[in-house]
Amino acid sequence: xxxxxxIQHTESVHHTNGMVGSWTDWDLTEKGIKEAELIGENxxxxxxxxxxxxxxxxxxxxxxxxxELIGGxxxxxxxxxxxxxxxxxxxxxxxxxxxxxxxMEMQExxxxxxxxxxxxxxxxxxxxxxxxxxxxxxxxxxxVFLVSHGDTLSILHHILLGLPMDAMNHxxxxxxxxxxxxxxxxxERQVRLxxxxxxxYKRK
Length: 204
What we know:
Elements: E1 2-8, H1 14-17, H2 30-47, E2 53-58, H3 61-74, E3 79-81, H4 97-103, H5 122-137, E4 143-148, H6 150-160, E5 180-185, E6 191-198
Parallel strand pairs: 1-4, 2-3, 2-4
Antiparallel strand pairs: 1-5, 5-6
Helix pairs in contact: 2-3, 5-6
């Protein structure tokens, strides 16, 4: 049995300047730094007795910085994984959200749809996360902390809960910046969702 605690990175510069996040390497804002420290403190208060734990993170700055601040409370150094990156939006990377909306090539409806021809679909992200899940998360019996991005976590949560890929055509498990989710992997492949995008961790 293992616990998986996912954390959506805290406030980043792209949340405040109207730019697309995606694979652009934005820093956390001062508010985001304070939020990450509070999440780390609150998680440590809850999980300090865990003797075996590991911390994985996207290698993009905003997630890495969030993970480093949280990991500091546990003495954990984040293991950086490209698979946990946000979805690559192709031509929209480095552009504003307004530009993206005005130049979008396709309105995404199904999991295989791509907003831009050179962008990742949600199916593409599912495939890279599925490899990470089978390599790491499926085999872990200890507490796993995992820091990633909103769109990426919405897809990973489907995988962790054992939902089929096409469920994303009608169900979005979209969280919030700084949201903490807890999933317990029980024996005999039972899965328990204990918390979803809980924002109380980034508050005093």
